[in-house]
């Protein structure tokens, strides 16, 4: 059969193309990666907490090589002495880990040739050298594994002042005002003011002659850059500097301000007394001087000796609670009252009945919890569980874990160390400032206290939460 000349030339061209391509393929060098850069590091050990480490690459001052580090520290006491590690790079030829031991010696490990069972000790420091696939280009890294050195949930307490004053005076109230701590002390015929920035050092006392004798100083509240104090129903005192006090009489109204409660929703709230009906009502004010009477307080609502505290919930809703205290017939209560508007109240104690009858407590907001510091029972004694916490906005209360929260400080001596404990008390003052709790004064059945303690949760001092 004769071959068509046109088909012959097509076949010849195809054969030439195939031969040319094969020749080019055989003579072209295979491209080898030259990028040894770090991609990721994972801990796959079964040890508790280790696998949660998330590593990133950073540049630290004073360190020539880039640093592979977990910015969020692993839990306290996490064991990093035998860790299964998986490194990933953009290109790998050979990878070495230079592991430092406790005495400064260096062990070299070829981690690109290790088996799945091989581990690395990260306690004293590790450096990584990775060669790219070309066997020449390399990158060096420092590996830092951060582990919390202290228990995050432990409170560190210290007594920062053993005695603010030594004169007579058991009526006390401390509060934060104009960026300072104002601590009022009353002895019946004299009222004295102490001021401090940090609670440790206090300025010379100032006599406050414009407050009345036998003032119940725990009734002082701060509102809109002024201080207010309700005294014996008919008079309300106020001050814009805490030293000079003015008074406003309620002689023409049909109600008196009996006791101040709290600030909430840009209003000051109080318990008012109506002499005509001999009933107690809620009242509120926009300026602390002009008041509007609200509904009658519910049955069982306290009129003195209570712990009142306003705060924002986790969803940023304004709330307030009033706990314990005495009713108008002097009955000590165990009720927990809660409100979001000052008018409508819910009695939590109808659902939770684990709280004892109490008075003289102090409540602060701290670490998304409410802390109750100090209280006395219906016998006038401080109960054993005088430091309580609530994680559900006051609904239920439980004893704090004394392993972590007990108010005590280490006392060092040449021969031994021991603890100094804060004595149980009620009618304390507590302030939260700069992530610290400051507890001032108070009293118990034996007398009054003039010391200052400060505590902080370790976790709140970490740079990253």
Structural account:
The chain is mainly β and 465 residues long. The chain is built from two helices and 34 strands. A six-stranded mixed sheet has the order 2-3-8-7-5-6, with no helix packed on it. It has a four-stranded antiparallel sheet with strand order 9-34-33-32, with no helix packed on it. The longest helix has 23 residues, at 5-27. It is elongated.
Q: Determine the fraction of residues in helical runs and give it as a percent range.
A: under 10%
CATH class wording of the largest domain: Mainly Beta
Mean of the pLDDT scores?
89
Count up the helices.
2
Cα-atom Rg, whole angstroms? 35 Å
> What structural category do the secondary elements indicate?
mainly beta
The CATH topology of the largest domain is what?
Answer: Neuraminidase
Spans with pLDDT under 50 lasting ≥5 residues? 8-21, 23-27
**Strand-residue fraction?**
35-45%
What is the CATH superfamily label of the largest domain? Kelch-type beta propeller
Oligomeric composition of the shown chains: single chain
Q: Please state the second-level CATH architecture of the largest domain.
A: 6 Propeller
Compute the number of strand runs.
34
Distance between the termini: 88 Å
Please describe the biggest sheet, giving its number of strands, its sense, and whether it closes into a barrel: 6 strands, mixed
What general outline do the C-alpha atoms trace?
elongated
Q: How many structural domains in the coordinates?
A: 2
Q: What order do the strands of the largest sheet run in, or round the barrel if closed?
A: 2-3-8-7-5-6
